[in-house]
Amino acid sequence: MRVLMTVFANSSHLFNLVPLAWALTTAGHEVRIASQPDNVQAISDCGLTAVPVGNELNIMELARSTPREEMANGGVLTLNETRPEKLTWDYVHDSFAQHAQLYDYMADRAMTDELVEYARHWQPDLVVWDALTYAGPIVAEAVGVPHVRMLFGLDHWGRMRDAFHRLAAERPSEHRHDPVADWLGAKGSPYGVPFDETLATGRATLAVAPPWMGFPTELPTITMRHIPFNGPAVVPDWLRKPADRPRICLTLGLTLRDIADKRAPLADFVRAVADIDAEVVATFGEEQLAEMGELPDNVRAVDFVPLHALLPTCSALVHHGGGGTRTNAIMHGVPQLIVPNWLWDERDIAHRFAERGAALVTEASDLTPERLREQLRRLLSDPSFQAAADEIQKEYAALPSPNATVAELERLAEHGRGL
Length: 419
Description:
By secondary structure, the chain is α/β, with parallel strands linked by helices.
């Protein structure tokens, strides 16, 4: 069969699709990944076939133009709100109205036009679309083929759609305005695609987190064991030798930079691990290294190291809760100290790991050099964290692989055109 995958121009969302794309390819199916032109090189670097559609997106320009404080406080990213008292009709309705604008920017009319034109020519049998790339369901319905929404983490969108419909049912019919129906109805109209709820949530949802991490849902769901992929990688020389003492991976990305800006110099956090009997592998850029001066003897600074090669040698991982990082931690059974970011599901999943006993969680506002040192010592000295991480690793390994998931997608595509 022919499978068209769609994703907006963002490397982490692309990398989320790659293991399944290769599973489909090695099963003998033709796969094309459609995205904006500024994602084409990244797709090609993954060894896959790219279809450039629309204009360059430059998504980082949007991120840089929106203050992080505004985003963190709900100015843009509000669908991850879970407190019942906050989930009023106005809150849920306005969240969808905001996100309709944001998601339409990420898969705009130019992208959708060219994608529909390509699909009518290429005639795919199935569309798999990144959960933020809403050109995907439009093109699938336009050419009459099944489509699957592929998650990149927890399904906050699906959870909030459930909340929206529940709240709408409690209101008079004339006061049930649905901004998602307005948006996707207008988006599909030029191609003869009317709105129904499958445009918002897919004819099926491909979940990449174990069921115990997710939310209860009535949506048709296929659960897959996600294989983290971070692009082309090279194993460095120093990683080819066994560690002579416990090894800790410290990779906090922008989270640590924000903490350092507000609470203490970055060098203070690095010095905090100097007296821990462990080798600390820390990912720092050139600018960060310049700020820190001389590093402690037990700290190895690297700009990038492939986590799938590093984490099997680690006894603990400190990170911000991102999807690829935490999935690597699950696969390799590594206890975690999570300082969760606020972008999507980082806090939710961090606390699920903590409830299972495989992680400690500290909010960025509470993290100090002293607390970092104290919690790392706990992770290294208390064997219960490793036992819990091992148990989660076993559960995760039992989930269907991308190769096994191909059979599910084949069955879905067998329903054929004209759904």
